[in-house]
Every structure is written in structure tokens, then in C-alpha cells.
Amino acid sequence: MVLHIDMDAFFAAIEERDNPQFRGLPIVVGADPKNGRGRGVVSTANYEARKYGIFSATPISQAFRKNPQAVFLPVDMDRYAANSLRIMQILAQFSAVVEQVSVDEAYLEISGGSQQAVAVGRKIKKMIWEQEKLTCSIGIGPNKLIAKIASDHQKPDGLTLVEETQVTAFLAKKLVTVIPGIGPKTAAGLQNLGIKTIDDLKKLTEADLLKRFGKNGSYFYRAARGKDDRPVGNFELVKSVGRQITFEKDILKTAEVIKQTQAVLKQVFTDLQAQRLKGKTLTLTVRYSDFVTHTSQKSAAAFLTIGSAQKLLLPLLLPFLGKRKPIRLIGVRVSGFPPQ
Ligand code: TTP
Ligand code: MG
């Protein structure tokens, strides 16, 4: 089975969790509304704000007019990315095949039957709630398309299973816009032909669809029938995994430099583990306060563990210790993965 997970009102949910004073209020994350004169758009709104007609991509000035009392917050991408990474690390515990598709969305391949997949889905929801105090919606189906549509079926905090035998009935009354790739333009074109639901869409032959929509037509034809044979997996080859920190204040002390470098190395190993990667080469980047940047590299014969990486790191770091030049950034990268 394929499991699709999508976090609920992701950016806004993080803000609501981290700012208890805003709990229960309409929250809008996005551009500065500047009393209604702001430019830019809403990134996302919590479900309370959605009641006022405020959604992702709503112009921020319009959102302000719809509810000037809402809490408007700027996008703090670094914080959301850190949350996203932790969630992806939770998911990696439940399947060896995890495909992250956006900051708050991923597909997992689950072996066993649908009941096993549902049990996994419940565990994921529980763990994300317990560890992150965030809710998500999960869809489980025989393929990626159905899992994705199912995760949207009961939002927020939903869990929807669609068995192979239920696919046709599940899709029948849904609007064509649930099919990824059918946006407002295509939907309007279809509506001109009297087509609103997936059942309506099934009345067109593949030839009709090909004529109107080119090669997308073929995809629409199959999607309307719940067919999708895309494998789950992240097929972009990752060649290295690295992290860096820029210090709030430049650092100088040997102990501090060592401590910070170890901390970055630890993060890199957490990322490697989450992606089930291992490498033999370690690269250290040190940038001084004047922006002069040094990069050095060492390889080991065997795949690195955090212990062997620490040993390898020390001689790389040595030339930078006990210097009078303050350091503004330290980066660590692991590469040299086995051929895939
Ligand atoms: P979504 O999963 O589309 O939305 P969401 O998580 O906020 O709400 P839902 O409960 O409906 O899933 O997108 C995830 C995050 O991506 C969202 O929190 C903010 C960001 N985003 C934008 O910045 N701009 C956009 O237009 C969209 C759609 C999302
Ligand atoms: Mg989401």
C-alpha cells in the first residue's frame, strides 16, 4: 500500500503551537499586510482563519480586509524547515521507502495489507502528535494518486483508507480538481463541456482527452479511473549531505570551535541516518569573519560512523585552532556514497 501524509495548516500550526497566546485565533502566515496596503500573498492560514475565506495564495491585502483582527505573522522558513526535517525523520522509522514531495508532504511504501498500513498510519499520527504537537492527515491507497486524494478527504487530522475495490466509488462524486494537475484553467475547460466530477470525466474517451489536452489527456484518462503506476521513491541521486552554521557572534576559542564543529557533524549524521545514506568522505568548511573560506577534505577506507568521522575531522580542524582570526561559519559535509 501507499501512504500519503500531509501536515495540517503546516506553517500556521507551528506558529499556533509555539505562541500559546494566539491559540484558537485566526492565524495568517505570509507577507506583511501593512494595514491592508501590503503586497504579496498568504502562505497559509489556520483553519480558524479559513472560515473567513483566507487561504494559501490569497493576496495579503484581501486577507486583511476579510479579517483585520486575525494574527498576521511573517514566514519563518528556517523554523518550519527544522520541524519538517524532524517529521521526515519520524517517517523514516516506518518505511525504508519514503519520498518527500514538499516541506509537509511525503509518500511511504508500506508492505503488508491495508490493516497493517492503517496501523502504521495511526502510529505515525500518534508519534508526530506526541513529539511535535502537530496534526497531520493521512491517506492510504493502492497507489500514489489514491493515497494523495485520500489524505485530503478528511482534513484536518484525518486518516482515510481506500481499498482497491473502493477506488471507483471513492472517486465518483469528487470534483475533477482533486486530480493533481487539474488546476482552475483545465477545470474551467472541462466545465464548458459539462464536466465537473470524476464520473463526468469518465464519459470522455482517451482520444477525446488527448485531442483537447495533449499528453496530459492520457494522464487524466487514467487518473479518472484511479490508475497510477508511479513507484514511490526519491530518485534524485543525493551526492552529499551537509550542514553549516553561521554563528550569531564569530567564535575564536579552541574549545568553542571544536564543540560547534562536533555539533554540526552530529546533525549531518542525523540527516544521513534519516536518508539511510553512508559515505566515506568528509569535507570541512571554515569561513573567517573576513569571509576568507577554507575547504579541506579527507576520505576513509570504510563508511564513516559518527565515531570514525570525529577522528577524521580532528586533523582537518587542527589548522584552524588557536588562531587569532574569528570564525563566522563552520560547515561539514559527507560524500562518497556507494554507487546506486
Ligand atoms: P499545504 O499542505 O498545501 O497547506 P497547509 O499544510 O498549510 O494546509 P492543509 O491542512 O490544507 O494541508 O502546504 C504546506 C505549506 O506550504 C503551508 O503550510 C505553507 C506553504 N505554502 C505556501 O507557502 N504557499 C502556498 O501557496 C501553499 C499551497 C503552501
Ligand atoms: Mg499541508
Explain how this protein is built:
The chain is α+β, with helices and mostly antiparallel strands and 340 residues long. The protein contains 13 helices and twelve strands. The chain has helices spanning 10-18, 47-50, 60-66, 77-92, 114-132, 144-151, 167-172, 184-192, 198-201, 206-213, 215-224, 254-274, 306-317; strands at residues 2-7, 27-30, 42-45, 71-73, 98-102, 105-109, 136-141, 159-161, 240-251, 281-288, 293-299, 327-335. A five-stranded mixed β-sheet has the order 5-6-1-7-8. It has a four-stranded antiparallel β-sheet with strand order 9-12-10-11. The longest helix has 21 residues, at 254-274. The structure holds thymidine-5'-triphosphate and magnesium ion (MG).
Distance between the termini: 25 Å
The string of secondary-structure elements, in order, is EHEEHHEHEEHEHEHHHHHEHEEHE
Number of strands: 12
Reported for the largest beta sheet, the result is:
5 strands, mixed
- What is the C-alpha radius of gyration, as a whole number of Å? 24 Å
Q: What structural class results from the helix and strand content?
A: alpha+beta
Label the overall shape.
globular
How do the helices and strands line up, and which of them pair or pack?
Blueprint: E1 2-7, H1 10-18, E2 27-30, E3 42-45, H2 47-50, H3 60-66, E4 71-73, H4 77-92, E5 98-102, E6 105-109, H5 114-132, E7 136-141, H6 144-151, E8 159-161, H7 167-172, H8 184-192, H9 198-201, H10 206-213, H11 215-224, E9 240-251, H12 254-274, E10 281-288, E11 293-299, H13 306-317, E12 327-335
Parallel strand pairs: 2-4, 7-8
Antiparallel strand pairs: 1-6, 1-7, 2-3, 5-6, 9-12, 10-11, 10-12
Magnesium ion binds next to strand 1.
